[in-house]
């Protein structure tokens, strides 16, 4: 049986990806960790793991039924998790819409055999991997705002020493209240 390594995520616009890469280069020394490629910067909503084509199809059909308004995401927090070796960018206060969307996708995934971690959902964009030594974080005051209007399903492949993410499907969120 053929499987794919899949996850639901929020895409970051290319301009924001480039801005974050420059900010990362300006604020973290090269020895801090392995930088995540600009095109791979995203915010995972639900990791699915190795998924069969049938399960993928079912989860995509369920995702297409989601009726939820878009929301505004403020990237204004950063941190370091030494054990998994991750330096991340996140939000001090996650918007309710983000938490609801992730919760719904994670619950659907779990019901269809995609084990979900026991850790609570902590929305973040991974900036560096293999950051196992202490990392000095930049002073507060950074802030990027993103209008979230859709979410996507990605496949993760590893070839020739590189991880690549390919969008398989994308679904709109309804217009943000007040838009």
Automatic annotation (TrEMBL):
SUPFAM superfamilies: LigT-like. Its EC number is 3.1.4.58. The active site is at 42 (proton donor), 124 (proton acceptor). It catalyses: a 3'-end 2',3'-cyclophospho-ribonucleotide-RNA + H2O = a 3'-end 2'-phospho-ribonucleotide-RNA + H(+). A motif (HXTX 2) lies at residues 124-127. A motif (HXTX 1) lies at residues 42-45. Hydrolyzes RNA 2',3'-cyclic phosphodiester to an RNA 2'-phosphomonoester. This is RNA 2',3'-cyclic phosphodiesterase.
């Amino acid at each position: 049986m053929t499987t794919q390594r899949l996850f639901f995520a929020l895409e970051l616009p290319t301009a924001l990806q480039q801005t974050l890469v420059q900010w990362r280069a300006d604020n973290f020394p090269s020895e801090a960790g392995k930088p995540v490629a600009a095109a791979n910067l995203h915010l995972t909503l639900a990791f699915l793991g190795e998924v069969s084509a049938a399960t993928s199809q079912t989860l995509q059909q369920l995702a297409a039924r989601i009726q939820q308004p878009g929301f505004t995401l403020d990237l204004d927090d950063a941190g370091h998790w030494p054990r998994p070796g991750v330096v991340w960018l996140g939000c001090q206060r996650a918007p309710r819409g983000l938490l609801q969307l992730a919760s719904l996708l994670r619950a659907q995934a779990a019901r269809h055999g995609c084990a979900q971690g026991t850790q609570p959902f902590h929305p973040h964009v991974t900036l560096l991997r293999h950051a196992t030594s202490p990392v000095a974080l930049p002073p507060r005051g950074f802030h990027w705002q993103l209008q979230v209007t859709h979410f996507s399903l990605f496949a993760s492949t590893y070839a020739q020493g590189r991880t690549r993410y390919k969008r398989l499907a994308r679904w709109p969120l309804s217009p943000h209240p007040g838009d």
